[in-house]
Amino acid sequence: MRFFCLLYLLFAFNGSALAAGFDSLPANEQKILAPLANDWDKLPKVQQEKWQRLAKRYPSLQPGEKARFDERMQGWNKLKPEDRRAAREQFLEMKPNLPPEQRKEALRKQWESYQKLSPEKQAEYRAKAEARQMQMQRPARQP
Asked: 20-31: buried (b, 16+ CB within 10 Å) or exposed (e) per residue?
């Protein structure tokens, strides 16, 4: 029984090593994930692990894929903290961990509720989305 407990702890420790503090990441991953450095400790472990897997794959990406990745990371870096928080909340509302069919159904329901809104409220949401999009297209902040 002790052997299984030790084995479990060993695997649990190795799995949690992926979601370590930002400063403990390898230098090449820190460079790739630099826009997330300030928020790293606030990210759920699952997202940290996802970003680390992406950073490990980054060197093998095609140039177009690297450009898209870099563009998205820069866009994230340009967002204000409250916009990042809102984006995280919106992402979680999309139910990313659901199986595809359930996720599709959840998104369909969100779309239906949006369509039931008044034209004024829909316009307000569209304006907010356009403002976020414009903000992400601005040049990066200079340190």
From this structure: eebeebeeebbe
Per residue in 84-138, pLDDT (tens digit) is 778 777 777 766 677 778 778 877 887 888 888 888 988 888 888 787 777 766 6
Q: Which amino acid type is present at position 102?
A: Q
Give the number of residues written for the chain. 143
Taking the model in full, what pTM does it have?
Answer: 0.49
Residue 23's contacts (CB-CB under 8 Å, 6 or more residues apart) are 30
Which residue has 């200079």 as its token pair?
142
Exposed/middle/buried for 100, CB within 10 Å: 0-12, 13-18, 19+?
exposed
